[in-house]
Write a structure and sequence with these properties.
The chain starts with a helix and ends with a helix. Helices cover 80% and strands 0% of the residues. By secondary structure, the protein is mainly alpha-helical. It is rod-shaped. The protein has helices at residues 2-19, 25-74, 99-109, 112-152, 156-159, 163-194.
Length: 195
């Protein structure tokens, strides 16, 4: 009996909330949702670009260290397309070089310092890939919310005639917004902790 009374009380509360929803509530709700998520997408994108620039700087720094080390150890200037072409010694790297330089080049590319730098480069590449993957999750949810708000905004007047539908959409969209914010918070917390 007590459970039936509690259920009835919940239904009455929901009815009061639904009856309190004004004619422009959907319009205001979905336009605010759009503007808020557009701002979140912009701020998140700016953060991703900022971090990407940091990764680019780190890649360039390690690449410069590798090339400078090779240049100073072998006393040669090298032309390459990708730094990864230099990781392992290959005969085609030595076209037109005398045997002394060829031997030195083979020695340098086999050294532990050389391997350590390329391992550092691979770790940085993995960290970058994880960062991009992690950034994609909150962005996808925020873009989904943007799309939902754009789709529902023109129908806000028609939806208001079906108050239970309107209320259900409010609740569903709010829950998705909470998931979006939690995902974004988790992403940012992880990024600032590792920075």
């Amino acid at each position: 009996m007590k459970q039936i009374i509690n259920s009835m009380a919940i239904v009455e509360i929901i009815d009061l909330i639904i009856q309190g929803i004004g004619e422009d509530a959907s319009l205001i709700f979905y336009s605010s949702l759009f503007v808020g998520n557009a701002a979140l997408v912009t701020l998140t994108a700016m953060f991703v670009i900022y971090k990407k620039q940091g990764f680019d700087f780190a890649f360039t720094r390690i690449e410069r260290i590798i090339v400078d080390y090779l240049t100073s150890a072998c006393k040669i200037s090298i032309n390459y397309g990708s730094i990864h072409e230099l990781e392992i010694f290959r005969e085609e790297m030595c076209k037109g070089l005398d045997d002394g330089i060829k031997y030195k080049l083979q020695e340098v590319t086999g050294s532990t310092q050389w391997k350590k730098r390329f391992e550092e480069l691979k770790n940085l590449r993995n960290e970058y890939n994880i960062f991009i993957s992690d950034a994609g999750r909150p962005m996808v949810i925020m873009f989904t919310l943007l799309l939902i708000s754009v789709i529902l905004l023109p129908f806000s007047g028609a939806i208001h005639h079906y108050l239970y539908l309107e209320f259900s959409l409010f609740v569903a969209v709010l829950l998705l917004q909470v998931v979006s914010l939690l995902t974004l918070f988790s992403f940012l917390k992880k990024r600032f902790r590792t920075s």
